[in-house]
Structures are given as structure tokens and as C-alpha cells.
Design a protein that fits this description.
Blueprint lengths: L7 H6 E3 L5 E3 L13 H6 L4 E2 L3 H10 L5
Antiparallel strand pairs: 1-2, 2-3
Length: 67
């Protein structure tokens, strides 16, 4: 069976944590930064867990070798 090609932008946007959770960064970090408060800007620098089961399945299909 041939290898499956990885969707490169998906592989760059998502990572798995050491415990196996699917992590992502928030979008829009650098856009219109002057108008945002420091609290909002600091929220962009933390990784968030992807809870949606459908999104997990889709990402596993797009990037099968990510784990």
C-alpha cells in the first residue's frame, strides 16, 4: 500500500501533546495587534486543545503521520 501524502498546512497548524491531546494555536495573532488589549494578545500565545471529535478525525485523515 502506498504512502499517503500529508497536507502540509495542517501539519504546521496542529501538534500532538505528550499525553496525546491535539493542540492548536489561535488564528489572527498578528492581525490588528495595536487595537487589542494585552490580555487578549497574551491569549493568542497559548496552545488550545481541539475538543471536537469531527475535527480530530479530519486532521488525522489530512496528516496521518503527525503523531
Amino acid at each position: 500500500m502506498p504512502k499517503i501524502k500529508t497536507h502540509k498546512s495542517t501539519a504546521k497548524r496542529f501538534k500532538y501533546s505528550s499525553t496525546g491531546k491535539l493542540m492548536r494555536m489561535r488564528q489572527g495573532k498578528g492581525h490588528l495587534r495595536r487595537k487589542k488589549s494585552p490580555t487578549v494578545k497574551s491569549a493568542y500565545s497559548h496552545a488550545h486543545v481541539t475538543e471536537n471529535i469531527g475535527a480530530r478525525r479530519r486532521i488525522k485523515r489530512l496528516a496521518p503521520y503527525l503523531e
